[in-house]
Design goal:
Blueprint (H helix, E strand, L loop, with lengths): L1 H50 L1
């Protein structure tokens, strides 16, 4: 009986940890894409200014 409880608790902790790790990874990806977008905006603005 104790083994079942320990298994359930460890399984729950594993799911919580995996979800928190996934959230961190997703947040990092969002920050990276935001940086890339800002860099592209800067390049486009510089290009347009050169055309003028």
């Amino acid at each position: 009986m104790n083994n079942i409880y320990l298994f359930a608790i460890s399984l729950g902790i594993g799911f919580i940890c995996s979800f928190s790790i996934l959230r961190i990874i997703i947040q990092k990806k969002k920050k990276d894409t935001a940086k890339k977008r800002e860099e592209l905006k800067d390049e486009v603005i510089k290009g347009l200014q050169k055309l003028k």
